[in-house]
Amino acid sequence: MAITIREGFERAIGVFAERGDTEMVEFFEGRIAQLNKKNTAERKPTAKQVENVGIKAEIVAFLNGVDEPMTAADVAKSCPYCVENGLKPQRVAALLGQLVKSGEVVKTEDKRKSFYSIA
C-alpha cells in the first residue's frame, strides 16, 4: 500500500531527527503545517456545483408532481427544466444519485433498471 505525503514527511522527520539535522526537521514540519492549512481551508463551491443545486431543486419539484417512479432518461425527457436546458440522461442520473445520497429521492431497481421517486 502506498504511503501518503503526510506519512512520508513524518518518516523523514524521524530519520532527520535521529541524525540531528534540525534544519531538515523544520523543513518537513513546515510542509506538514502547509498540508494542515490546505486541509482546513474553506472552499467555495464551483459554478457547476451552484448550478447543480438549482437543477436538483427543479428535478425534485418535477418528481413531486409525478405519481409513478421514473428512470433517469424519462426524467431527462419529461422534466421541463431538463428539456429546456438540454440536460443529457447521464447528467440527470448523476444528479439523481446525489439526491438519493441526500435522502430526497428513493431509488428502486427492477430488472436491472433504476427508477427514481420522491422519498
What's a concise summary of this model?
The chain is built from 6 helices and 2 strands.
Largest sheet, strands/sense/barrel: 2 strands, antiparallel
Number of domains: 2
Write the CATH architecture name of the largest domain: Orthogonal Bundle
Count of distinct strands: 2
Percent helix, as a range, is 55-70%
Q: Runs with pLDDT <50, length 5+?
A: none
Contiguous helical run count: 6
Rg, please? 24 Å
The top-level CATH class of the largest domain is Mainly Alpha
Average pLDDT rating:
92
Secondary-structure-derived class: mainly alpha
Strand order of the largest sheet: 1-2
According to CATH, the fold-level topology of the largest domain is: Arc Repressor Mutant, subunit A
Distance between the termini: 40 Å
Topology overview:
Elements: H1 5-19, H2 22-40, H3 47-64, H4 72-78, H5 80-84, H6 89-102, E1 105-110, E2 113-118
Antiparallel strand pairs: 1-2
Helix pairs in contact: 1-2, 4-6
Written overview of the protein:
This protein is mainly alpha-helical. The chain has two domains: 5-40; 47-118, Winged helix-like DNA-binding domain superfamily/Winged helix DNA-binding domain (Arc Repressor Mutant, subunit A, Orthogonal Bundle). The chain has helices at residues 5-19, 22-40, 47-64, 72-78, 80-84, 89-102; strands at 105-110, 113-118. A hairpin with a 2-residue loop joins strand 1 (105-110) and strand 2 (113-118). The longest helix is centred in the N-terminal third of the chain and has 19 residues, at 22-40. The mean pLDDT is 92.
